[in-house]
Design a protein that fits this description.
With 452 residues, this protein is α+β, with helices and mostly antiparallel strands. It has a domain of 310 residues: Creatine Kinase, Chain A, domain 2, CATH 3.30.590.20. 41% of the residues lie in helices and 16% in strands. The chain contains 17 helices and 17 strands. Helix 3 packs antiparallel against helix 11 and helix 6 runs parallel beside helix 13.
Length: 452
């Protein structure tokens, strides 16, 4: 915790301090799952005998190799922690593993396996399942219970003021994301530009949310479409990333333009929705008149921005639908191959350097519907995604970190190459099954998309 006052000139230093020498680069993986009751397929409530609350309590109490400690808010467990990893709750009870920063994707793959192993016995015993897809396929927003976290109450009241689908994003979506390091400002700027350009391709490739309200939504990534109408001030693709002089200062200016959500005082959230952090820097925040922000306040504000790629003291790539275990491992493998090898990063840069901000914004808007078939720059997304995958494979082969069987990390790209070969995303496959074997009944998806 750092509760000393932060001055305007120090804001960009927060990001600058994130730079690490290459030997210290790590990769973290976060993945969410949408819970349901196996008998009714209904969302899991927070309270009750068979509930999210009880699941967290039992995960903390059960005997396994990793001891997870419960985190409480107002007496209710809302998270578990083990070292640098955590299990947290999204607003609608989506269960998220925020993995530890790890050196290899082999370690990531093992971490995911331990997580699923830990959940499997308890969830089966408690009559629960967790869907690894991008959007709640059957139940409406009103059918989902809000988790008892005070920050979500503030966001819940604010979201409808700035977009039509913010509450759906909070309650009904699930994602997989990867977190990566940078060397310095120049390395950060290059990686951010590449990541923003390639993120729509990743959204298309990982599309896994074609259903809404028990039927096809007309989209392949309903989750990605939700983000397009959530909050235009804190989502999307900031134009500054495409400036030739993009760096920590320009990102700081963008973050300062994002309206505030809240601050924390005495472990309580204070509603500051719509207020300006710039005013806070001058002691003019109406909720705390005469007070100035601390380093912790700035870090919290940075975490309430939700662009497709987010800079903190590392880079978060945030635009993929949740998927099953092979797809979870594939996401950090893809980004590691693209961004952590110099030859691959340069090839990725050469691929996208001519892409303009408007090109990427339009592509981001279009890929939720047609995914790999989306037209782009006279070709289609499938064409550019194949190039991206080949670059990522090159990067991982160059890094050449092998497991005990002698296989390098490129093995984890297999589901992505298979999707490219078939031309069928996870969403395409489920739609095909829905219209054939499932006889237009959504319920078989609850067995097909469970990976515990």
């Amino acid at each position: 915790m750092n509760q000393t006052r932060i001055y305007r000139k120090e804001l960009a230093d927060y990001f600058r301090r994130g730079g690490k020498v290459k030997a210290d680069w790590r990769i973290g993986t976060e993945h969410e799952k949408i819970g349901f009751c196996t008998k009714s397929f209904r969302p899991i409530p927070y309270f009750g005998d068979k509930s999210i609350q009880r699941l967290l309590e039992r995960l903390a109490d059960c005997n396994h190799d990793e001891q997870w400690l419960a985190v409480f808010e107002d007496g209710h467990p809302i998270a578990l922690k083990h070292g640098l990893a955590s299990i947290t709750l999204e607003p609608g009870g989506q269960l998220e593993l925020s993995g530890a920063p790890l050196v290899t994707i082999h370690e990531t793959h093992a971490e995911i396996a331990r997580h699923f192993d830990m959940l499997r016995t308890l969830t089966q015993e408690m009559g629960m399942g967790f869907l690894t897809l991008g959007y709640q396929p059957k139940w409406a927003r009103e059918d989902i219970q809000w988790m008892p976290k005070s920050r979500y109450k503030i966001m819940r009241e604010y979201m409808p003021k700035v977009g039509k689908l913010g509450l759906d994003m909070m309650l009904r979506t699930a994602t997989t994301q990867a977190n990566l390091d940078y060397l310095d400002e120049a390395d950060m700027a290059k990686k951010m530009r590449v990541a923003y350009c390639l993120q729509p391709l990743v959204t298309a490739l990982f599309a896994a949310s074609p259903f809404k309200d028990g039927k096809p939504s007309g989209l392949l990534s309903t989750r990605a479409a939700c983000w397009l109408d959530t909050d235009p001030h804190r989502t999307g693709t900031p134009e500054c990333v495409f400036d030739d002089d993009f760096g920590f200062e320009s990102w700081t200016e963008w973050v300062l333009d994002v309206p505030m959500y809240f601050v924390m005082r005495d472990a309580k959230y204070i509603d500051c929705t719509g207020e300006s952090f710039r005013d806070f820097l001058e002691g003019k925040l109406p909720q705390l008149p005469g007070e100035f922000p601390t380093h912790d306040d700035w870090e919290l504000h940075v975490s309430t921005t939700f662009p497709e790629v987010r800079l903190k003291q590392y880079i978060e790539v945030r635009g993929a639908d949740a998927g099953g275990w092979p797809w979870i491992s594939a996401l950090p493998a893809l980004w590691k191959g693209l961004l952590y090898d110099e030859q691959a990063l340069q090839k990725a840069w050469d691929l996208v350097v001519s892409w303009q901000h408007a090109d990427v914004v339009e592509l981001t808007r279009n890929v939720p519907k047609d995914a790999l078939k989306t037209p782009f720059l006279g070709k289609d997304v499938h064409h550019f995604t194949q190039i991206m995958l080949d670059i990522a494979k090159l990067g991982l082969n160059n890094i050449d970190v092998c497991d005990d069987k002698g296989y390098c990390e490129a093995q984890y790209l297999s589901p992505l190459f298979e999707a490219m070969k078939s031309g069928e995303t996870q969403a395409d496959r489920w739609l095909r099954l829905y219209h054939t074997e499932w006889n237009q009944n959504i319920d078989p998806l609850f067995a097909n998309a469970v990976h515990l």
